[in-house]
Design brief:
Aspartate Aminotransferase, domain 2, Aspartate Aminotransferase, domain 1, 5-stranded mixed β-sheet, 7-stranded mixed β-sheet, globular, alpha/beta, 3 domains, single chain, 475 residues
């Protein structure tokens, strides 16, 4: 019989230790090489998974259930720590962050009201203050909150910018009255290669896809600043209302970085909110060598940071920072059962007032744990190793007559194609997957491209040489 929950009872403590030990052993025994995937095709995997029944009259108990999960699921999970896993902005997790995850799940605190996570709440507030310092915001005037990921962070910025603009332009409170007549003229500007969360958010927030202007990019895959300004001029002339622009600091497919300094000049002229989607590139703030690539981030009104990308923390762990803490006002709503105003007057902090979510994990602990464990110097080494690997890989591919390599990487993403053509590149990726090697695929100018997202600091130049040689063999 399974013990139910953690408690002070000795037999429950012993059972918890046994469960943790067995789970650890099962994880470690589920892999014996450096492949990233078992190679099982989707139809076979689906068949095996569908053989599991969801719930039976009598449970199997912990031991038998763990065996079932190990056999049917665990051996076919992606091993993100593998040097053969490099398709997405999906990182391996630092070892100490796994300890933080164990603490988070065991205590199961929630970051909505203070009495659901007293120490957790105070830690998040402290971590946010430190992040404001790190990105050059005033810690007294600014504020931030953790979110489920970059999409939610970006949406939070769009909500704040939309409501602030409408209040100023229409003298209208969106929170009370919904969108006013004329809101269909609001326009958000972003790169044609920016994250799709901009379009998703525009739909969800009642603005629609047509409210998003996808700006052309230059040969470095950065927003074309002249095209940006001309588009705003045309939109204003046509009766539209520019309210926000998004600079991408690390595009998903190329790692390209928009010029936020020049975008700030333009957005200030038109009274627009400038948001930085730095979900990918934000980690560069810890590198003295590469920090300047980001530009003057402190000039922006808001910043998205993803710790589950280049910071190498477990999913999910993201944050939104606002230069002006009043931009969190659209999320503030009081409930007598949760975030009572009288409690806040006495100094209790209820973080539910700063976001879309109610129940929320204590993800800030992962940031505190890893930052304290490693320090800036070690994070800098990790970041520079990944960027160095991308630079090396780019140069090898560029010097090889078999490949088309259009973009020099700014961060750690290398996008390329074998000259054999689209069908060959598609087949290369699928054949590699069967061998347990997982790489990415995208499109550029209607050409099928292969992609290496090099976040794993354990990857060596020799690993990249071997992969490139294997790609040539398959081609």
């Amino acid at each position: 019989m399974l013990k139910t929950t953690l408690s002070n009872a000795l037999d429950t403590r012993d059972e918890y230790k046994r469960i943790v030990d067995m789970t650890r052993d099962a994880i470690l025994s589920s892999f014996s090489d450096d492949t990233a995937y078992s190679g099982v095709d989707p139809l076979k995997l689906r068949k095996d998974i569908n053989e599991i029944t969801l719930i039976d009259e009598l449970g199997l108990g912990f031991d038998e259930t763990l065996k079932l999960i190990e056999e049917k699921v665990m051996k076919n999970l992606l091993r993100t720590w593998s040097k053969s896993y490099m398709p997405h902005l999906h990182s391996p997790a630092l070892l100490e962050s796994l300890s933080a995850e164990m603490i988070i799940s065991a205590f199961n605190d929630s970051l909505d009201s203070w009495d659901q996570g007293p120490a957790a709440t105070e830690v998040e507030v402290m971590v946010v203050k430190g992040l404001l310092d790190l990105f050059g915001y005033d810690r007294e005037k600014g504020d931030g909150a953790f979110t489920s990921g970059g999409s939610q962070s970006n949406m939070s910025a769009i909500i704040a910018a939309r409501d602030k603009f409408i209040q100023k332009k229409f003298n209208h409170d969106v929170k009370l009255n919904g969108l006013p007549k004329g809101a269909d003229k609001l326009i958000l500007y972003t790169s044609e290669i920016s994250h799709f969360s901009m379009d998703k958010s525009a739909h969800i927030l009642g603005l629609g896809y047509n409210a998003v202007r996808h700006l052309k990019v230059n040969d470095k895959c950065q927003i074309d600043i002249d095209a940006f300004e001309k588009q705003i001029e045309k939109d204003v002339k046509d009766g539209y209302m520019p309210f926000m622009a998004v600079a991408t600091l690390g595009s998903t497919d190329y790692g390209s970085i928009d010029d936020c300094a020049k975008m700030r000049e333009i957005t200030e002229r038109y009274g627009m909110h400038l948001h930085l989607d730095a979900a990918y590139g934000s980690a560069l703030v810890l590198s003295s060598k590469h920090k300047e690539k980001l530009g003057p981030v402190s000039q922006a009104d808001s910043i998205t940071i993803d710790f589950h990308k280049m910071f190498l923390l477990p999913i999910s762990c993201s944050a939104i920072l606002f230069k002006n803490k009043n931009d969190f006002e659209p999320f503030n709503l009081h409930a007598d059962y949760l975030n009572r105003e009288e409690d806040e007057e006495e100094g209790y902090i209820n973080l539910v007032s700063k976001g879309i979510q109610t129940t929320r994990r204590f993800d800030a602990l992962k940031v505190l744990f890893s930052f304290k464990a490693r320090g800036r110097k070690e994070f800098e080494e990790i970041i520079e190793k990944s960027i160095g690997n991308a630079s090396y890989c780019y140069n090898v591919l560029k010097c090889d007559g078999s490949f088309y390599v259009p973009i020099m990487p700014e961060i750690s993403t290398v996008t390329f194609a074998h000259l054999n053509g689209d069908d060959s590149n598609r087949k290369i990726r699928k054949e590699l997957l069967k061998e347990g090697i997982v790489i990415g695929q995208t499109k550029m100018n209607d050409k099928v491209m292969l992609k290496l997202t090099l976040l794993n600091p354990n990857i060596e130049k020799s690993d990249l040489d071997s992969l490139i040689q294997r790609i040539k063999e398959l081609a």
